UniProtKB/TrEMBL annotation:
Domain of life: Bacteria
Alphabetical list of SUPFAM superfamilies matching this protein: P-loop containing nucleoside triphosphate hydrolases (SSF52540)
Gene Ontology CC terms, in alphabetical order: ATP-binding cassette (ABC) transporter complex
Membrane disposition: Peripheral membrane protein
Upper lineage: Bacteria, Pseudomonadati, Thermodesulfobacteriota, Desulfuromonadia, Geobacterales
GO biological process entries: cobalt ion transport
Biological role stated in the UniProt entry: Part of an ABC transporter complex. Responsible for energy coupling to the transport system.
Pfam families: ABC_tran
GO molecular function: ATP binding; ATP hydrolysis activity; ATPase-coupled transmembrane transporter activity
Entry protein name: ABC transporter ATP-binding protein
Length: 252
């Protein structure tokens, strides 16, 4: 698969109950870009991400990863390239132990046992979850589950990392650790977040969704300075760009 470009063309998605979650979304993301998809609750962020590796089929329009259209017959190939961390870790963890969950993908790729072991140990260590390896996922706290879910994706060494609200439910230390991990990840990353300070710190580009359409696409700092746009999209600037509530000064 060449270049790992993500191309979304006039993507529309209607759920069976008639909700039009995406109403014509188009953009191109190039290799190595770090892109945050932001927007108010219900704007269509999760729905969009679920199309990037074919968990949802488009009602109309198209998604391509490199030269490959995301369709039923290419799903296995696409999912080797695009690693997806779901919003709810319970959708990702289904084996008796965390270690087996993290090993599941590499084993399915047919990797030799030594390589599987190396990937499991490394992925768990990168999210600070080595000590959780033998635990059943249902015994983990919410933040621990999130970290285990991220490890299941890292163990696949994806070229494109897609994450739905990766820092939701994490304590400040784990959030910082995850941000470090994302910063280190050299390939393309696309994530949704309500954590706009993280977006400001990690991304060079933000796509703003509003009611299923792209309301803005550009550098985060420019977007966060546009008060009119933020208000129309029911967003607020990140804390680090808001002035001091007491003395009214500051804000980067
Ligand atoms: N399975 C479903 N059936 C019907 N409607 C759905 C379904 N899943 C999501 N929706 C609707 O689609 C719209 C977009 O939802 P989506 O989950 O993509 O939003 P979001 O931007 O990720 O929101 P949040 O910030 O709350 O996670 C919402 O109106 C939501 O109610």
């Amino acid at each position: 698969m060449s270049h790992h470009i993500v191309e979304v063309k006039d993507l529309r998605h209607s759920y069976p109950d008639g909700t039009e979650a995406l109403r014509g979304v188009s953009f191109t993301i190039h290799h190595g870009e770090s892109v945050a998809v932001i927007g108010a609750n219900g704007a269509g962020k999760s729905t969009l991400l679920l199309h990037l590796n074919g968990y949802l089929p488009p009602t109309a329009g198209e998604v391509r990863i490199g030269d490959t259209p995301v369709v039923r017959t290419t799903l296995a190939e696409v999912r080797r390239t695009v690693g997806m961390v779901f919003q709810d870790p319970d959708d990702q963890l289904f084996m008796p132990t965390v270690g087996e969950d993290v090993a599941f993908g590499p084993l399915n790729l047919g990797l030799p046992p030594g390589e599987v072991e190396r990937r499991v140990a490394e992925s768990l260590a990168r999210v600070g979850a080595g000590h959780l390896r033998d635990k059943p996922p249902y015994r983990l706290s919410g933040g621990e589950k999130k970290r285990a879910a991220i490890a299941t994706v890292l163990s696949m060494s994806p070229d494109i990392l897609v994450m739905d609200e990766p820092t939701a439910g994490l304590d400040p230390f784990a959030r910082r650790q995850l941000m470090g991990l994302l910063r280190e990840f050299r390939h393309t990353k696309i994530f949704t977040s309500h954590d706009l300070d993280m977006v400001l710190e990690l991304c060079e580009r933000t796509i703003v969704l509003r009611e299923g359409v792209v309301a803005a696409d550009g550098p985060p700092r420019e977007i966060f300075r546009n008060a009119e746009l933020l208000a129309a999209c029911r967003l607020e600037p990140p804390f680090s760009m808001q002035g001091c509530p007491v003395c009214g000064t500051g804000g980067r």
